[in-house]
């Protein structure tokens, strides 16, 4: 299915769609909030809809159940929760590392990163952004990055070539590049291991839901993470040891997760079929 979809067309149509939306809304004098919502709709709804609809209309025998099914996901759910917690812990530690590097030379930039995120568009805007972050983005990005890009780049290079290139592209679109890159590798391996996009979608949704929760609930309400999460300039130094420990432990766990998921996968560049799902005893 995804092997027939041209990744370059998807990239081109997405760029053109976003640029066209920006131009139209600038010409009509729309405010920044309205323009941002319009761009998000173009990026996550309009362009993906027409791209995938084009290929589905040409192939009426295709079925979503080929890549999206609830069958066999139950034994994976505890593992997905653990992977999300490890991913978030690593990203938080990397955030501390970035602040520790830039704060001595550019304290104003570190303060900017630590400043609370303001939502200027009111309640309606917040609901839309939550819908995008927790529902739309995980579904669309998994179909695009783990579906189209991973499959196409695997066909042109190798299994790991496809995983690394698609994950690099995924990382470029996120502020937390390293964390997003590793997240992309795990999501790719989940799909390759099971042949089911629902698992990386759930992985993505849970990760984004916890990230969204942290935006609306003060971090001091989460006593389990308050001891290492950085929220002020003073925390950069006072919580350094805790973040180093979290970084080392989460990095080792991430490496183990990647090894566990990759174990047994065929690294043949000509491999066209996704491997069969693991049995319940084999799932992490």
Describe this protein's structure:
The radius of gyration is 20 Å and the shape is globular. It has 284 residues and is mainly alpha-helical. It has two domains: 1-62, no CATH class; 67-262, no CATH class. Helix content is 69%, strand content 0%. It starts with 6 loop residues before the first helix and ends in a 22-residue tail after the last helix. Helix 3 packs antiparallel against helix 7 (177-194), helix 3 (77-102) crosses helix 10 (240-262) and helix 5 packs antiparallel against helix 6 (159-172). It has ten helices and no strands. The model is unreliable at 268-282 (pLDDT under 50). The chain crosses the membrane at residues 9-31, 37-56, 76-107, 127-149, 161-191, 197-219, 240-259. Residues 127-210 form the CAAX prenyl protease 2/Lysostaphin resistance protein A-like domain. Pfam families: Rce1-like. This is CPBP family intramembrane metalloprotease. GO terms for molecular function: endopeptidase activity; metallopeptidase activity.
Strands, helices and their partners?
Layout: H1 7-27, H2 32-58, H3 77-102, H4 107-114, H5 122-156, H6 159-172, H7 177-194, H8 198-216, H9 233-238, H10 240-262
Helix pairs in contact: 1-2, 2-5, 3-7, 3-8, 3-10, 5-6, 5-7, 5-8, 6-7, 7-8, 7-10
GO molecular function: endopeptidase activity; metallopeptidase activity
Pfam families: Rce1-like
Transmembrane segments: 9-31, 37-56, 76-107, 127-149, 161-191, 197-219, 240-259
